[in-house]
UniProtKB/TrEMBL annotation:
Entry-linked PANTHER family: INTEGRAL MEMBRANE PROTEIN-RELATED, MEMBRANE PROTEIN
Residue intervals passing through the bilayer: 42-63, 96-114, 135-160, 180-204, 211-231, 263-284
Pfam families tied to this protein: ABC2_membrane_2
Extent of the signal sequence: none
Keywords from the UniProt entry: Membrane, Transmembrane, Transmembrane helix
Organism: Leifsonia virtsii
Protein name, UniProt field: ABC transporter permease subunit
C-alpha cells in the first residue's frame, strides 16, 4: 500500500475544477466578451441605427404636406386619402427597418461562421464539450444586443418622423399605445432576425453561404413571391406571402400585413427563428467542428 492514493480533486486549471467550473452565466459572459471585442460589431450595429433613423428622416421629409395632398384629390376620394395619410407616420418610421434587418442578419451569421473559419469554435467546444450551452449563450447575447439596438433605433426614428409629419399637418403621438407597441415590435423583430441568422450560420458553417441564405429569405424570397403571385394571380401564394419572415416582421412593427392579427405576425417570426435555432443546435451536436 505504498502507492499514493490518487487525489479526487481536479487540477485548478481544469475547466471542471471548483475554481474554474464553467456555468452558463460564465459562458454567456465569454460570448459577450467575444462579441463586444470585435470591431465589426460596432460598425455593424452603428450602421443599423444610422439606416433606421436616416431613412425615416428622409422619408418623412419627402412626404408632401397634408393640405397639398388632400387638396389635389376630388372630394369623393378625400376620405380614403385621409385614412391613408394616418399611416404615413408608420411608413416613415419603419422605412429603414428592412435595411437594418439585413445588417443584423449579416452580423448574426458572422458571429458563428467567423469562429468556424478561424477555428476558434474548437476552443469553445473544448471548454464546453456539451456544445449546446455555447450556442445558447451566443443566441442569448446576440438577441439582447439586437433587441436593444432595435429599441434605440426604432424609438429614435419615431421621435424624428413624428415631429416632421406633425409640422405638415399629419396626426401622430410618440407616447400613444400604437406607437409604443410598434417600437417594441420592431426591436423584437430585429432580435429574432439575429437568432434566425445565427441558426442559418450554424447550419451552413460558411460566411458566404450563410449570408446569402439569410439575405435570400429576408429580401429575395418576398420579391420572388410577389412577382410570381402578380404574374400568375395565384391566391394561395398571395396569402402565403404574409407568413414570410420579413413581411411578418413588418407586421410586428406596425405595418399592415394583409390583415393578419399582430399575434399571428409574432408567432410567424418566432417559428422562423425557432426552426433555424433548433436545426442549427442539432447539427452542431452531430457534426465535427
Amino acid at each position: 500500500m505504498s502507492t499514493a492514493t490518487a487525489s479526487t480533486h481536479t487540477a485548478p486549471g481544469h475547466p471542471h475544477s471548483s475554481l474554474g467550473r464553467l456555468n452558463f452565466a460564465r459562458v454567456v459572459r465569454s460570448e459577450w466578451i467575444k462579441l463586444r471585442t470585435l470591431r465589426s460589431t460596432f460598425w455593424t450595429l452603428g450602421s443599423a441605427v444610422v439606416l433606421v433613423v436616416g431613412i425615416a428622416t428622409l422619408v418623412a421629409a419627402a412626404i408632401p404636406e397634408k393640405s397639398v395632398l388632400v387638396g389635389e384629390v376630388p372630394a369623393a376620394r378625400r376620405a380614403a386619402i385621409e385614412a391613408q395619410a394616418s399611416a404615413f407616420g408608420t411608413t416613415a418610421a419603419t422605412s429603414g427597418l428592412t435595411f437594418a434587418s439585413l445588417v443584423i442578419a449579416v452580423l448574426g451569421v458572422l458571429v458563428i461562421s467567423g469562429e468556424f473559419s478561424t477555428g476558434m469554435i474548437r476552443s469553445s467546444f473544448t471548454a464546453v464539450p456539451r456544445r449546446f450551452p455555447v450556442f445558447a449563450a451566443k443566441t442569448l447575447v446576440l438577441f439582447v444586443v439586437a433587441f436593444v439596438i432595435g429599441l434605440i433605433s426604432s424609438a429614435a426614428s419615431w421621435a424624428v418622423a413624428i415631429p416632421i409629419l406633425n409640422g405638415k399637418g399629419y396626426s401622430g403621438d410618440l407616447t400613444s399605445s400604437d406607437t409604443l407597441w410598434a417600437i417594441l415590435g420592431a426591436a423584437l423583430y430585429l432580435g429574432l432576425v439575429a437568432v434566425f441568422s445565427l441558426g442559418v450560420g450554424a447550419i451552413l458553417k460558411s460566411t458566404a453561404g450563410g449570408i446569402a441564405a439569410a439575405l435570400g429569405v429576408l429580401l429575395v424570397l418576398p420579391i420572388i413571391a410577389s412577382v410570381v403571385s402578380g404574374l400568375t394571380r395565384t391566391e394561395w401564394l398571395a396569402d402565403a406571402q404574409r407568413y414570410l419572415l420579413s413581411n411578418a416582421g413588418q407586421g410586428i412593427s406596425g405595418v399592415a400585413n394583409g390583415g393578419l392579427e399582430p399575434w399571428v405576425n409574432v408567432v410567424t417570426v418566432l417559428v422562423w427563428s425557432a426552426v433555424a435555432f433548433i436545426v442549427g443546435a442539432v447539427l452542431l451536436q452531430r457534426r465535427d467542428a
